[in-house]
Design brief:
Elements lengths: L5 E6 L4 H9 L3 E6 L5 H9 L6 E4 L6 H6 L5 E4 L13
Parallel strand pairs: 1-2, 1-3, 3-4
Length: 91
């Protein structure tokens, strides 16, 4: 049976309040990753198990390669201020 759940990769360093909100939603599948994940491991996560519809980032870089590997991507968000780890033109 097809699911309408959206897969969102989320760093384990995300605050408990925000993480808890996502975990309680029926329409979101939270895929946690370490805030110190290597670029190759992050890209492997993005290509594993189908689409990734959203990415919440801490210090993890997100650029052209990640955008291409995140099939189904709709939104990239960053915890904190600014978007220095996000390659905006790549998105």
């Amino acid at each position: 049976m097809p699911s309408n759940r959206k897969r969102v990769v989320v760093p384990t360093s995300m605050g408990a309040g925000g993480y808890g909100v996502l975990k309680t939603r029926d329409d979101v599948e939270v895929v946690p990753f370490s805030g110190t994940i290597s670029s190759p491991d992050f890209n492997a996560l993005l290509t594993a198990d189908g689409e990734v519809n959203g990415a919440i980032l801490g210090l993890t870089r997100f650029g052209d390669t990640e955008a291409k590997n995140a099939n189904g991507l709709r939104v990239v968000s960053r915890i904190g201020a600014g978007y220095d780890t996000v390659d905006v033109p790549a998105l």
